[in-house]
Amino acid sequence: MQDIDTRYGAFRIPTAEDDLIGRFLAHYGEWAWDEVSFVASIVPENARILDIGACFGTFGLGISLLRKISHVCFVDANPAVIPFLTHNVTSNARISHTIRENLIGRAGIKVAAAHSDPGNIGATSFTPDASVQISQPTVPAIKELSDLWQEEGPFDLIKIDAEGMELSILDSHARLLSQGQVTLWLECNEDAQSLALCERLLSWDLKVFYFAFPSHNPDNFRHAATPIFPLAYEAGLLAAPRRQPVLDEKLRAHHCILRAISSVADLREALWETPRWGMPEWEGRDVPAIAARAGHSMRGEDFETFLTPGWQNGELIRDRLTALEHSTREALHEAHEQNTAQQQALDDLSARCQNLTDSLVHEQAAHAAAQAHNQKLLDTLAHRALALTAAEAQIQRLERELAATTANMLDPIAEAGKYLESTIRDDLRDKELQIDQMQSLVDYHSEQAIALQSAHQQLQNRIRDIEISTIWRATSPVRQIAERHPAIQKAARTGRRVAASIRNRYFKN
């Protein structure tokens, strides 16, 4: 923010580069002074004024400089300007005044949070618009004009600059305003809202006037000669004035426009004939000079190349635009045909892609089913492999147990063989001794020889009984198993050698 000296006194404004009205105040030291001068000319003495959309307070303060005013109520709904408005009014007003932060309108109307152009705080609007950026997230409450009238009125003049909400404000106290007892000064822009506003005022049978004024006042407070916007005009509608409005000598010198409006068509024509912008070189020229420069601009000509060698009149921009539109339409038609052909090719390609996609989906489903089947088989094989592994482990365990059992069985057999061998050896030793004794006494002991032969025969029978015994046959499977186990084979061979040695040695006959 910055503090500057203005026509109204010491003013506080946003940084001039960041705001349009602040830029005007810094450059000219005033804002819309021709507007204030015109409205002040029809305001009665000691009037009470309601300034809706007061912004920085220039309108109400300006009126108070030109007329004896009894009271001004400054109203604005934009919280961003309230600090500036409060400072400017309280510092400079020499009249009775109030400052209100209110959004005025008809109850129930749809409103949005505050939004505006980034460089124009005075253009803050609360009308719904999805294309703009919200500057204040909170949607304010609406106060009807009739309620504000009860709290602050009555008023002789109501100025409304509400960025699209003017009609809603009028409707919120239409019963009183339609009687024509209050003068209205309303912003009028180049949009359909202005036509609707005019229609409403005429429907109340009010007298309506159109006033337009240039944004550059050549008699501005700072005497700045350079216009910010050359030939740019602002405008408003004056309804139910207490006295007939006229343009004084100064306003005529500033080329202000005043027209009585009796129909919406009159306003539409007035807006059409009001300049809203111009070239810098047009500023200060008379009408023929401006028309000449405008004609050159419409043909795309400039003074630097005017009448130089090879120069020729240019073609009107309108004709060039017509030719350009024609060629553009042809190009668009050709592009449309190409687009149609490409779209057809794209549709065909999409159909092929869809067919391929369907085939791929089918194949993926079949592949998934095959994978599921294969997985089931793998699970079955894995289960069987686990069962087989368990069976092999069980067989190995049984073989180990059988080998241990066989070894346990052969150990007693080996011990029995050793015992039998020892017993037979002892018996044979005794028999040999007896035979030796009997040989010497053979002639004398024949009966004893017969007994010995009988004993010999009994021993042979005993050996044969052993060979054909159940134990011997029972050990046959053991001998087969022993063939796979070296320890068992060794024990068996030892047993057979012992038996064979006994048989061969003692029972040859």
UniProtKB/TrEMBL annotation:
For this UniProt record, give its keywords in alphabetical order, as a comma-separated list: Coiled coil, Methyltransferase, Transferase
* Chain ranges of the Methyltransferase FkbM domain: 51-190
Ranges in a coiled coil: 381-408
Record-given protein name: FkbM family methyltransferase
Which Gene Ontology BP annotations are present?
A: methylation
State the organism named in the record: Gluconacetobacter aggeris
What Pfam families has UniProt attached to this entry? Methyltransf_21
One GO MF term: methyltransferase activity
* InterPro entries named among the record's database cross-references: FkbM_mtfrase, SAM-dependent_MTases_sf
